[in-house]
Specification:
Length: 492
Amino acid sequence: MIIRYFRFFAVIAAIMLGSCSSEKKDSLSIQSEADLAGLRVALTAGSCYDLDLSAREDIMLNRFNNAPDGLQALLNDKVDVLVDDETVFNAVIRKEHGIKIACKGDKSFPTAFMFGKDHEDLAKACTATQKRMEADGSMLQSKDFWLKDKYIEAESLPFIPGVTEGTPIKVATACSTAPISFMVENQWYGIEVDILRQLAKDLNRPLEIKLYDISSAIMSLESGLVDIVMGGVFVTEERQQQFLFAEPYHAFRSAYYVVDHEAGKQHAGLWAELKNSFRKNLIVEKRWKYITGGLWETVKISVCAILLGSVLGLGLFGLMRSRRKWMRSVATAYNWFIAGIPQLVLLLILFYVVLAKSGFSPTMVAIITFALFFASSASDIYATSLDAIPHGQTEAGLALGFTRLQTFFNIVFPQAVRRGIPLFQGQCVSLLKGTSIVGYIAIQDLTRAGDIIRSRTFDALVPLLVVTVIYFILSWIIGLLLKLALPKKHVI
C-alpha cells in the first residue's frame, strides 16, 4: 500500500517537474529601476528592497518570506522580476535555474549585526572584532572568499574552532542562504558566521546559532532569548531606534533577476531530472540528515503533546461534569478561549512572553502549546463518546451484579472507545500537521528541514514532496496504531 502511494507521488512529481518547462520567450529587458514600471516584482517582505520600492505605485509588489519562494514565483511566471541581494544567487544557481541579473540597483544598503539595548558591551566588542579583522586583512580575505563566489569551488569551507564551555553567545539568524549564513551537515558557515566566530574567540565564549524567521528573530531579541540577530540584517532608522548595531561590515546592492530565456537550458528528461533533483536535495552534503532530524522533532513533539493533552483532557472533562457551577464555567471558558485563538498565536505568546524567562526549551514550549489545544478536543471526545452509550447499559451491568467500576470498564468503556477512536484519530492527525509551525520558535522540525534544504538548493519540488510523503505516512501510521488499540467486541 505504501509503495502504491509512493508511486502516485512520484508520478505527481514528474508531472510537476515537466510543467516547469515552458516555451522559449524573449528575456525581459531591464536596464534600470525605471524599467520596473508596470511589472510584477517579487521581493522578501520587510527587507530594505521592500521599504525602498513600496512607495512606488507603478509596480505590483509580491512579498515573499524568503528568496527560494521568490525564485519559484519567478520561474513559474507568477512575477516578472525578482529583487534581492546581488550575492544571493551565485553563478552556479543562476545557470542551473536559468536566471540572470538584468541589472543592479543604484543604492547600496549597509548590513550589520543587531543587538538588544542592554547589550551595548557586546555590540562594541563586535565592532572591535571587525576593526581588528580589517586591520589584519582577514576581513578582506573573508569577503573575497564569500562575496566573490570562491566558496563554490573550495574543497573545504573555513571553520574557526571555538570554546565549548562558558556562557554562550546566543545568535538568531534570519538567513540560511549562502554566502551570508548557511548550514552544511548541521554546521554553520558564511561570512557573518566567520565574523561571529572571531568575536566568540575574542570573548572566550561558545557560539550558539539557531535559525529563526525574521519576525521571530526580532521578537527573540526583544524578549532577551538571544543576544544577536544576524542574517543580512539591513540597518534602518526604525531599527536603530529600537536596537543597537555594530558598525556595518558591508553594504550590499540590489540585483534584478529575470528568467534567462536565451540561455538555452537543456532538459535531460523528466525522470533524469527528478533523479538528479533527489540527489541534489538529499544526497549532496548529506542533506537527508535534516529530514531525519526534523522527523524526530516532529514525532517527539506530536507524541508528547498527545499524551499530555489526553491527560489534561481528562481533568477538563471532570470539570465539565462537575456538580459545581464555577468548575463547569472554568471548563467552558477554557474551551471558548482555545477555540478562538490560532495555534501560532498561542505558541508565540507562550514562547516570547509567558515562558520567555522560564528556561523551558523551545521543544517543551511547543509540547505545552499543542497539549493545551489537544486537551480541549480530547475532553469533547470523551464527553461525546460516553454520552453515546445508553444509560441502560449501565443499569444492565448493575442488574447482573457488577459494581459501578466493573460496569464502566467492562461494558461502557469498551463501547465508548470504539466510538471515540475515529474522532481521536482525526485530532491526532490534526495536531501532527499543526506542528509545522514550530519553526517560528527555532525548532528544526520536518517542515523547517525542508525549508533549510530549499534555501541551499533553491529547488522547491523534492523537499516539499519528501516532506509531504512523510507527513502522509505518519498520518497513516497514527490511524493504524489506533485501530490496533481498539478493544475487541465480546459478548457478556
